[in-house]
Design goal:
The structure holds 2 protein chains of 2 kinds. Helices cover about 35% and strands about 25% of the residues of chain A. Chain A is of the alpha+beta class. In chain A, the strands form 2 sheets. A 7-stranded mixed beta sheet of chain A has the order 2-1-5-4-3-8-9, with helices on both faces. In chain A, a hairpin with a 5-residue loop joins strand 8 and strand 9. Chain A is globular, with a radius of gyration of 18 Å. In chain A, about 40% of the residues are buried. Chain B is an alpha+beta fold. Chain B contains 6 helices and 8 strands; from the N terminus they run H-E-E-E-E-H-H-H-H-E-E-H-E-E. Chain B is globular, with a radius of gyration of 20 Å. The chains are: A alpha+beta, B alpha+beta.
Chain lengths: ~190, ~270
């Protein structure tokens, strides 16, 4: 009975605490943006709260640097200690929501072998929100008349509260400082 | 800026009444700000569309005739308390946000009602425009509008026009801001040059590939896209200074001389 009461207390009080737990002022989840992922599911990006994530932006028709961004994310995860690796989430948000439909994102995830649930490929539900995501992550992009994009290529590490704790512009090789930062954050959670 | 999850089940009748009410309220609100139509255009921008020489092309749009004022922004803050300076999270606006106001809900002597609002972040400017059912202008829309003078849509080749813009840059930053209400240009838009710098929607797109140096090593991968952006019309350095300033900003930055205006579909 005592145990049951304790459990009840934990459920009630535990729920209370997390509901009251205000987001830090420097969390990117303060701007709560709706995303649609490769499974067609719509969610708000603060639902990733609680997960350590590596985030970057890309677009599926990009043949130059974007495949390297994805490869760099894959390599980076492999360098993270195997005891922590499974808890690291990977989020790619498209610069090109007009082209990157759910079907296109799903096809890309299959072709590049980016399995759910650790990999999420998404676009913003509202076209205009893409620039907000880029602004929150400190990424720059510009669409060219031929439909291609010029964009900065960086990996951004978010802690469980959505704070940017590290970033790297080393693409095509693993940035060991960035890996260490990911391990530190994962060890903390 | 926080967006509530959208309802999954919508009662059409309730929705219709809600839309009617929202429109009625919205129409009252909009009466405060004047927008004038600007035509679609293809013009030579300081930032060629393809990074080399392609002209910029814009669709027709409507632009606010005046920058947003302190009084207008105060109204917005009162109806959107998430944007009060004592509530806004640091990720959306830095510590100087509205710091020249007397308090979170009053202007005071350093922020006169008809002065353009400054010390506002890009996120805040976006949220304000959204509240007028508008958006921030794209750089090309802003550049096209700002090229006009009292009788020409493109006065940029006139040395006197350039000199006027440069003279304004030369004014000390400590000079108090004038009120809005300068002489209207040929479109009927005021104060694009000579009063404040203005946010544009794509401020973080302007010089995106200017940094693709070091082609020989992995840094070349920092920016995706073919070749460095070449700045055109180097004699237009008055306009290029705007680009340089906007490119240096983060979306949460606020400065004493940076305000904004909105645009919407015509």
């Amino acid at each position: 009975m005592k145990r049951l009461l304790l459990l009840l207390f934990l459920v009630l009080f535990g729920g209370q605490v997390s509901a009251d737990d205000a987001l830090p002022a420097d969390s990117v989840y303060q701007a709560n943006i709706a995303l649609v992922d490769q499974a067609g599911r719509q969610w708000h990006w603060n639902e990733q709260r609680g997960h350590v994530q590596i985030v970057s932006m890309f677009y599926t028709s990009c043949t130059m640097v974007c495949p390297m961004i994805v490869d760099t994310m894959k390599l980076t995860v492999q360098k993270v200690g195997s005891d922590k690796r499974d808890r690291l989430h990977l989020l790619l948000v498209s610069f090109d929501p007009a082209t990157d439909s759910v079907a296109v994102l799903r096809g890309y995830a299959q072709q590049r072998k980016l399995p759910a649930p650790s990999w999420t490929l998404a676009r913003t539900a509202q076209l205009a929100d893409t620039r907000q995501i880029a602004a929150l992550l400190g990424l720059q992009y510009r669409q060219l008349p031929d439909g291609e994009f010029n964009h900065s290529s960086e990996l951004v590490l978010l802690d469980a509260e959505g704070r940017i704790v590290a970033r790297t512009s080393e693409i095509g090789r693993v940035d060991s400082d960035f890996v260490r930062a990911a391990e530190r954050v994962l060890a903390r959670e | 800026m926080r967006k509530l999850p959208r309802p999954t089940v919508i009662d059409i009748g309730v929705m219709r009444r809600f839309v009617a009410l929202a429109c009625w309220l919205g129409c009252l609100d909009v009466a405060a700000a004047d927008y004038v139509p600007l035509p679609s255009a293809i013009f030579g921008s300081v930032l060629p569309a393809d990074g080399k020489a392609a002209p910029a092309s814009i669709a027709a749009f409507a632009m606010r005739t005046e920058p947003v004022t302190n009084a207008e922004y105060l109204d917005f803050v009162m109806t959107h308390p998430a944007w009060r300076r004592d509530r806004v999270p640091a990720v959306l606006a830095d510590g100087s946000y509205l710091s020249h106001w007397d308090s979170a809900e009053s202007l005071g002597v350093k922020a006169l009602p008809r002065q353009p609002v400054t010390q506002v972040s890009w996120f805040a400017a976006q949220a304000f425009c959204e509240s007028e059912r508008a958006r921030l202008p794209g750089w090309y829309e802003w550049e096209y509008a700002a090229a006009a003078d009292g009788h020409r849509t493109d006065a940029r080749s006139d040395p006197a026009w350039r000199q006027r813009v440069l003279d304004w840059y030369g004014r000390p930053a400590t000079t108090p801001l004038a009120n809005i209400g300068g002489v209207p240009d040929v479109h009927g838009v005021r104060d694009l040059n000579g009063l404040v710098w203005e946010w544009v929607d794509d401020f973080n797109a302007l010089l995106v590939s200017a940094d693709s140096r070091d082609q020989g090593n992995a840094d070349k991968a920092k920016f995706c896209g073919a070749g460095a952006l070449t700045l055109q019309q180097k004699e237009n350095y008055a306009t290029l200074m705007r680009v340089a300033m906007l490119s240096a900003l983060k979306a949460s930055d606020t400065t004493r001389t940076l305000g904004f205006r909105c645009v919407r579909e015509p």
